[in-house]
Design a protein that fits this description.
Structural class: alpha/beta
CATH architecture: 3-Layer(aba) Sandwich
Distance between the termini: 6 Å
Order of helices and strands: EHEEHEHEEH
Shape: globular
Largest sheet: 6 strands, parallel
Number of strands: 6
Number of helices: 4
CATH topology: Rossmann fold
CATH superfamily: Flavodoxin domain
Number of domains: 1
Amino acid sequence: MLGGRIGIFVATMTGLAELCAQEVRDVIAASGQTADLKLMDGLGAEAIDPYDLLVIVSSTYGHGDIPDNGQAFFRALEGKESLEGKRFAVFGLGDRTYADTFCHAGEKWDSLLAGKGAARLIALQIHDASSGTLAEDAARSWAEGWVSQLAEAA
């Protein structure tokens, strides 16, 4: 048992982050756990309440921005006094050809959650769209790494 409920929260513009989140959910399911996958559209801060582990999968768009569907959720979490007692992991997507803003959305999520007192399960993972690897394959490999670590620690 990974120890608590798992929520996967997705901020996406094109749907790629959602594909990555589905891969993460499949890895979790293969470990014998379940995870709820939620697009961030319309979510308030209370959406995280049932979950012990928050997995954020977010692309970056524009000038290092969080996708439109995640901006209100990000602001809602900024308004929470504390996220102590929560654990988190962030998978950020970006394109290194935009060097000045590469994966800034993932960095923003990681910084917000840590800054509010949530415990980082694993270091921020970023995927470079110009790397030649598929983002969903990278998300699967990333999740296999930490799910295995948690299973060993349980």
